Please model this.
Amino acid sequence: MQKLLIKGNRELTGTISISGSKNATLPILAASILAFKAKLKNVPFVKDIFTMLDLLKFIGIKIKINSKNKTIELINSNKNINTLAPYKLVRTMRAGILVLGPLLTKYRKAKVSLPGGCAIGTRPVDLHLFALKKLGAKIKIKDGYIIAEAKKGLIGTSIRFPSNSVGATENALIAAHGAKGKTILYNCAIEPEILDLISYLKKLGSKIKISGRKISIIGKNISFKKINHKIIFDRIEAGTYIIAGALIGKKIKINKVVPKILKYEINVLKKMGAKIISSKNSVTIIKSNNIKRATVSTKPYPGFPTDLQAQLMVLMTQAKGLSKIKENIFENRFMHVPELKRMGAKIEIKNKTAYIYGLTKLTGAEVMATDLRASVSLVLAGLIADKRTIINRIYHLDRGYEFLERKLKKCKASVKRT
Ligand code: EPZ
Model:
């Protein structure tokens, strides 16, 4: 089991280039089942992407990977596609559920393993199934699998989501792309990763209009175009390094970002005292010596993202006074708190709110990663803690952060993988 060793208290200075978004790449890879030939650029070569590629290969999609120029080519000219997504490939990466919509809309049947839960919550898929049933799918659950079929194909309709779900919106969009006629989705999630999927589906021939949380789509059944698509930047990776800069950045320039997509996060950090200068496609951040406390609630985009909650909590340990962060999206996303407390943080949890008492000096310790974003919050804590921090189970990190050690070492951090 690999570990990360971090020696803290080294000021960071330098430039970090942000990779492509894992959470944009995953639905676009799933939607590529509906493409003939697709070439994706700026793909982050992280674990979850390879898991999704394994699933697509299992289904019968031809994949060509060029890690030098970070592109993936996908060809679906297979006459006998396997419309099964097995448990062994879906359980390690919940986003495997995203092949349900494309398989169903193109091949009129699919058998996809229920993804099961993960560290941060039960992760139900009822909203995905709700949308597909509205489009005409017959769905039953048997032996831990979703068995879906649409003998006459899916038919466009109006669907109002009872609550915002990124994955369910993505599955519905991809399914509607292959459905007959027009579909109107109401109360959609509108994360930037969904907008990137929409621009991909447009290249595949769909006519899509967005207004607020309403998305209307007139699908296009088959497309024999060869399409190229550049994945948007990873706003969560960018937010993570901006918070690292607020914690211990002498001066860090973060490249290949679109600052306006990070507006909300940047405003929260500026209010806490971080000095942030945005330019066209970069953000420069200098830590502040007196970080102010804050009260933040996680919300669907464009609110403060749940995927940055653990990282922000580390910054709050360095703010004078009582900070609060309410986790509204997932039911169990405070797994990093016991580990941060072992490093000296003073945090209490009541219901869905964490109360963080600052300013507390953190001290290095041996800690354990539990999920992707919790593990990176331990890295941030290690960067500012006295002495040495050892982080176990860093395979969680490898699921979503490309070249993390390399990017931090380039900014003078002392980070080593053993
Ligand atoms: C996506 O997960 C992201 N994953 C998550 O990032 C992110 O935290 C989440 O969106 C919220 O922004 C990918 O894009 C691969 P949801 P997803 O459906 O689609 C409930 C990371 O760290 N819900 O928007 O699964 C659900 O339990 C990962 O990169 C239902 O009740 O999130 C949650 O409470 C972690 N029924 C809320 O909705 C459903 O059918 C939001 O979930 C689906 C979801």
